[in-house]
Design goal:
This is Transposase. With 179 residues, the protein is mainly α. It is 57% helix and 7% strand. The protein contains nine helices and four strands; from the N terminus they run ααααααααββββα. The strands form two sheets. A two-stranded antiparallel ribbon has the order 1-4. The longest helix is centred in the middle third of the chain and has 31 residues. The protein starts with 5 loop residues before the first helix and ends with a helix.
Length: 179
């Protein structure tokens, strides 16, 4: 587990909300880890219990095992797991709706754009054929090249950001331009 996300992570948080819960034998611990995900998990990964037990030894539980905070932590882990599953179901539905569109394959051919990003771009832009030029798309997204010239002076062009600060497309394209 490289990131604190996903089914296995939240199932382990529900199972081990405190370091004292990790104090079981290796066989029981490997069985718990195996049951923490519906996916097939590699034996090497299951048997790599040293990392989990070492982290448990380094940590300190601030509340008792019987504290209501333990149950609250489990509640929020279960809620996050459910939200993650709902999010994935919506993303799968979006991909299903976007696949027949010709722009979907074009977006997927761009380096750095996967299914989720492609469907988000299509969802936010809507029908791309309604734009007559790239400048109209840039204006809709909220990124425009600023051009300034006066006499013999020609300023360096740079991207301006305006419009809805929560618009996903502006953030995506800003990140794409800087990397």
């Amino acid at each position: 587990m490289s990131a604190p996300t996903g089914e296995q992570y939240w199932n382990l948080v529900m199972t081990f909300p405190c370091n004292s819960f990790v104090r079981v034998d290796d066989y029981a611990l490997s069985a718990i880890i195996r049951q923490s995900t519906s996916k097939r998990i590699a034996d090497k990964r299951v048997n790599d219990l040293d990392k989990l037990t070492e982290l448990a030894k380094q940590s300190y539980c601030a509340v008792k095992k019987t504290s209501p905070l333990m149950e609250e932590g489990r509640y929020y882990a279960k809620k996050l797991l459910r939200l993650s599953e709902q999010r994935q179901a919506v993303l799968d539905q979006m991909v299903g709706l976007a696949q027949p569109l010709p722009e979907y394959e074009i977006l997927l051919s761009i380096s750095g754009i996967a299914e989720t990003t492609a469907t988000s771009i299509i969802g936010e832009l809507g029908d791309i054929r309604r734009f007559q030029s790239a400048n109209q798309i840039n204006a809709f997204i909220g990124i425009d090249l600023r051009h300034y010239e006066s006499g013999n002076y020609l300023a360096q062009e740079h991207i301006t950001k305006h419009g809805n600060p929560y618009r996903m497309l502006e953030r995506f394209f800003s990140n794409a331009f800087t990397t």
